[in-house]
Amino acid sequence: MRDTEFLKQQIESAQVEREILHRWRKNMSANFDLAFDRLIGNEGGYVNNPADPGGETNWGISKRSYPNLDIASLTRDDAKQIYLTDFWNKGNFEQLPFALGFQAFDIAVNSGIPEAVKLLQQAAGVTVDGIIGPQTLAALTTQSLPALLMTLAAERLDFWRHLPAWNTFGAGWTGRSAANLRFAAQDLYR
Question: pTM, whole model, 2 decimals?
Fold first, then answer.
């Protein structure tokens, strides 16, 4: 009898774990979908601005980063897969609270994953080494989310201000930052 009860408990526990994992995966997918839709609002379609160091760009995917890709023919779905694999997953942004994960994802797309992590670390006041390790993760998941979001936005603006392309692209970057601050405000009440 005891063995039967124990077995029933183990089965129920396994079912609960599967349900939790299913919900987590569904939420993870929904998080990326929302982050991608927001990002595309910042990135837009095809451009080939000679002043852009990335060169030819479509959906935010640049020829400089993907030299073997036909940028002009890139579809939205192609871009989404690139962003999922090369930015969202590679940056491990899912492990952060969504509000912070989205901001880091947007920075990574615009400036690279290492820069996104460094700006997160500066905002959190931890050692800046470009790696989301246990110390950084602990700081990013235990500190005040509103304070981290505001500090991260300030760090990003300071980073942009010191780039040679600020005079050309600063107004657009500031607009991007304003849109992302609005998203941050929404995310705090989501």
Answer: 0.82
Sign of CA dihedral 59, 62, 65, 66: positive
End-to-end distance of the chain based on CA atoms, in angstroms?
A: 47
Q: What torsion do the CA atoms of 165, 171, 173, 176 make, to the nearest 10 degrees?
A: -170
Measured distance CA(61)–CA(45) in Å, rounded? 9
Cα separations in angstroms, 37 against 12, 106, 165, 178: 38, 11, 26, 16
Task: Please answer whether residues 117 and 136 qualify as being in contact, where contact means their C-beta atoms are separated by less than 8 angstroms.
Answer: yes
User: How many distinct structural domains can be found in the chain?
Assistant: 2
Q: Are residues 151 and 188 in the same domain?
A: yes
**Is residue 7 situated within a structural domain?**
no
Residue span of the structural domain in which 47 resides: 39-75
- Structure confidence at residue 25 as a pLDDT band (50, 70, 90): very low
